[in-house]
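Hi team, as promised in this morning's meeting, here are the two structures we talked about. I've kept the exact order from the run log so nobody has to guess. The first one is mostly here for context; it's the second one we should focus on when we meet again. Sequence first, then the predicted structure tokens.
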Amino acid sequence: MILNLVLMAMILVLLIPIYEAWQDDDIWQKMLAFASIATKTSIMILVVAVLRDDWMIGVVGVIILSVGNAGLMLLAHVLKRMNQV
């Protein structure tokens, strides 16, 4: 029961950056929204892993949390360099 309420609340919070990315045309705002989505999704995976006592799912959540935003930051740096030229 509590797990369902927690997951529903997390999904509702996840919809906020999705709406922001859909509404705004600025590439930097979209990238920030997608980084927020990736972080929130990995936190949801970690919550599920702790509640299910499954460390394999937790490892996936940690990998997404630590490496997932690195690619997005690299893309932001490339776009910034392209705009400077």
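And here is the second protein, the one for discussion:
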Amino acid sequence: MPPDTAPTGEEAHLRSLEALYASAPINRLFESRLSLPEAGRSEIRFSVSPEAFHAAGAAHGTLYFKMLDDAAFYAANSLVSDRFLLTTAFNLHFTKPMRAGEARAEGRWISGKRRVFVAEARIVDFEGEECARGTGTFMRSHIALSGLDGYRPG
């Protein structure tokens, strides 16, 4: 992107969080793509493959938790431009087994703007049906976003 069209302010922060997500080593195991359409909202697109199945032929809870936690976390951290947030608690409700196919986790900030943030997320499968829902609490850490290799502000 030419310097005169590089994003600034909130837009630069959102794009930098997307880059941070993409740089996380865990995402080599769980291939996925984060997009932040606006502060307080996130979407993670991912594929459910048989490699993530438990013995009964559906996605293991690990995949549900990872995608719900990430979607809620990034919805909350999109409102904080200086610090990395940490998950302090997460409640997860399974509503439908995920089978092989495309899915998305949608995150949304609910409350908090100082120290503790609350955000929720849900997973929707390729048929448009909700498979799980979760709510997390997140708090500011002492880790500066600007000190993380994957975070690249514009």
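Starting points for discussion:
Helices lie at 9-23, 61-77.
The chain has one domain: 3-147.
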